Amino acid sequence: MSLRHAWIRQRRALLSALLPVALAGALVATGDARAEYADVVINNYSDAAGMRPVIFPHWFHRIRFRCKVCHADLGFQFKAGGNEINMVKIIDGQFCGACHNGDIAWSVENCNLCHSAKPGTPTQVHESTIQKLAIQPQAGGQK
Amino acid sequence: MMTRRFSTLAACLLLSATALTSPSFAQNDAGKAVYDKVCVACHSAGIAGAPKFGDAKDWEPRIKTGMNALYESALKGKAPAMPAKGGATDLPDADIKAAVDYMVAAAKGGAKPAAAAAPQAAPAAAAAPAPAPQANPAALNFNRLLKPASKRNPPPPEDGIHDPENDGTHALQPPLTVFQSLPRSNAGNRVDWVKALDTNQIGPRWDRTDPTAAPVVMDLNIVREVKGSMPDVVYPHKQHTAWLDCSNCHPQIFIPQKGANQISMAAILLGQKCGVCHGKVAFPVSECRICHSKKKNVMPVKNAQAN
């Protein structure tokens, strides 16, 4: 516990000393439950198609596969929404369909395991720096 | 089974055509679209001192300088941290101006931060059961920045992005059921993935189908000297090549030559260089010491080494 606090204090000291503006308020906690780190919402087409947007959980998949499998072998670009995935490609065995084919993982008919986001949730990777490095300018000099 | 699969899909695709005409989401004008895509990264929360979206106080003195001055700043950039066109230099001037108009209107409209959060932070807003707009009691919380343990790694139905009304949501695995047995860390998933892999607590496949395939791990450290008092950065190929292919980084993100790449914290914070992964999927940027791990000489405070 005290280690934790020491760590936090140390980190805060570093932050304020070194990158006061950019980093000062680094982790704004709203107090609300937040998405799991690295969950990717993909919503290029889903909303418009009347489906819930897709949520891809990195934590779940990286327990089973190294990054290389998806990001080198299967060609997923490092960009949320950047792969123009659609159901035709998936059924054709590309992207998610390389595994969600009833062979390596459950197949495509389980629509609502993938299409599980609240309607309207935009495409993004959750809990990212950009999402979290939120500082109120007036709080810039806090602490 | 195939046919059923296809007919469901076909039905959905048909549905989609009709869904298109009923705007479930307010159709954005150009300004909002550009804002949501580009400017939001800094202006939604006020990164690096950017005037916050919808915050009248932040914008008032700037609006007083006149719209032309604001257009100018947005198009050409403004020191120290406002990039020309917000970094989206390929966008036409008119779109950038429209984004400025949109931001100024939001500020003038007196949109309170809570309301202003809506256009860009739908998930966060949705996450809030009832975002108390004004006298937010959360402001009085003992820990403002530290996320309480109970709010970490929430199960899917409570994480703010999964739809609890979707039955599939409840079939998904809550992260903590797995994480509890893995080595913990201070941030990100709060799992020490490097350790989990080293100690064989997880065995992620290196090949989609062949469980016996193993990576060729390359043990090559690259030390990057850092100006100032921050410890130097040690970039380890070992931990990276255990997860990634050389082609994931070379040559697109890094030219494979020591010192050939310009790397700065600003770039990392904006999701470039190391920030392509760190702060998105790999451990986040808040963990300074994992990267800045090499003390300078003997005395960590000795910082005369400004080269």
What does this structure look like?
The complex is a heterodimer of chains A (143) and B (307). Chain A contains seven helices and three strands; from the N terminus they run ααββααααβα. Chain A is mainly α. Chain A has two domains: 1-32, no CATH class; 39-132, Cytochrome C3, CATH 3.90.10.10. The radius of gyration of chain A is 19 Å and the shape is globular. The two termini of chain A are 21 Å apart. Chain B is mainly α and 307 residues long. Chain B has a two-stranded antiparallel sheet with strand order 1-2. In chain B, helix 3 (56-63) packs across helix 5. The longest helix of chain B is centred in the N-terminal third of the chain and has 20 residues, at 2-21. Chain B starts with a helix and ends in a 16-residue tail after the last helix. The model of chain B is unreliable at 1-28, 111-134 and 300-307 (pLDDT under 50). At the A-B interface, helix 1, helix 2, helix 3, helix 4 and helix 6 of A face helix 1, helix 7, helix 8, helix 9 and helix 13 of B.
Secondary structure blueprint with pairings:
The complex is a heterodimer of chains A (143) and B (307).
Chain A: H1 2-18, H2 20-23, E1 39-42, E2 54-57, H3 58-62, H4 67-73, H5 87-91, H6 111-114, E3 124-125, H7 129-132
Chain B: H1 2-21, H2 30-43, H3 56-63, H4 67-76, H5 93-108, H6 113-120, H7 122-127, H8 167-171, H9 175-179, H10 193-198, E1 221-224, E2 233-236, H11 237-241, H12 246-249, H13 265-269, H14 288-291
Antiparallel strand pairs in B: 1-2
